[in-house]
Automatic annotation (TrEMBL):
Class in the EC hierarchy, top level: isomerase
GO terms, molecular function: catalytic activity, acting on RNA; pseudouridine synthase activity; RNA binding
Entries under Pfam families matching the protein: PseudoU_synth_2
EC number assigned by the record: 5.4.99.-
Source organism (scientific name): Lactovum miscens
Family: Belongs to the pseudouridine synthase RluA family.
Protein name: Pseudouridine synthase
Active-site residues, Swiss-Prot/TrEMBL: 127
CDD domains listed in its UniProt record: PseudoU_synth_RluA_like
Lineage: Bacteria, Bacillati, Bacillota, Bacilli, Lactobacillales
Length: 289
């Protein structure tokens, strides 16, 4: 049995234990097990579900975690942007998988696990060619909470992309459903029957034949930014799958993440840099102009 210790913040003063667990976005089934198996202590005492909590309280929750074996990675390849007892945000290089797809495959998840000296769990992923911020949970208890925060848009992800051509507006929203391509399992397409997909776009800079844009995700569909920009006739440079012009790397980078932390609901911001993106941006600008 593992445990997690949480200091109650002023935001939750006066809530009952049950209300607190719900406010923390702990899933209903898990709340039930915590209550039935008496896995929660309040200042060292097992409370009932209607006990009140205050900001000077310490809560300890015991939870079960299935052991997960991850082949050893290289901790030196884990570039930490933020870390606490529950989660870790790292900077993924381009041309690296977020997680392995078969037994024994080494990916970013393995490097992060080797750095943390324990298994870590993927909250969201970046494509192989994309660099930037990636969030991992440090235990299985916090994983569904982070997933819920992502679903409720409490985790804000901001990307930069270099695309061909210019847009008629400097700020606009792409609201086009995305579905699977029946003819190519690797691809996604704009489809009326697909899942809702919304991307906010802002033009940061215009070059002679290129535009550098900022993209904010309101949804998180596979290849969302790539499909949306390509559907407008402005594919990302280096995106061979969606019609982008050849380039040394695909020009998509997850630059910024703003996250509402579990339990405290404190907001933090992390920014990642990518030498390969910035160097390729400079080279592409010079060549294309």
């Amino acid at each position: 049995m593992n445990s997690i210790e949480i200091k109650v913040t002023e935001l939750f003063n006066g809530l009952t234990v049950e209300e607190l667990l719900k406010a923390w976005l702990i899933p209903k089934a898990e709340r039930h097990l915590i209550r039935m198996e008496k896995r929660l202590s309040l200042n060292g005492i097992i409370p009932n579900s209607q006990s009140l909590v205050n900001s000077d309280n310490t809560i300890i929750i015991n939870f079960k975690e299935k052991s997960k074996f991850l082949p050893e990675g290289n901790p030196d390849l884990c570039q930490v942007l933020y870390e606490d007892e529950n989660l870790i945000i790292v900077n993924k290089p381009d041309n690296m998988k977020t997680h392995g797809n078969f037994e024994g495959e080494i990916a970013l998840q393995n490097h992060v696990a080797s750095y943390c000296k324990k298994a870590v769990y993927v909250v969201h992923r970046l494509d192989f060619e994309t660099s930037g911020t990636v969030l991992f949970a440090k235990n299985q208890f916090v994983l569904p909470i982070l997933s819920s925060l992502l679903e409720k848009r409490k985790i804000h992800r901001e990307y930069e992309a270099l695309v061909t051509g210019h847009f008629p507006q400097n700020q606009f929203t792409i609201n086009k459903n995305i579905g699977k391509d029946r003819h190519d399992s690797k691809k996604r397409i704009v489809s009326k029957t697909g899942q809702t997909a919304i991307t906010q776009v802002e033009v940061l800079k215009k070059f002679t034949q290129l535009s550098l844009v900022k993209c904010n995700l309101e949804t998180g569909r596979t290849h969302q930014i790539r499909v949306h920009l390509s559907s407008l006739g402005h594919p990302i440079l280096g995106d061979n799958l969606y019609g982008g012009q050849p380039n040394r790397r695909m020009m998509l980078h997850a630059r910024r993440m703003i996250i509402t932390l579990p339990f405290s609901f404190k907001k933090i911001e992390v920014i990642s840099n990518s030498p390969s993106f910035d160097q390729a941006l400079y080279r592409s600008k010079i060549v294309m102009e």
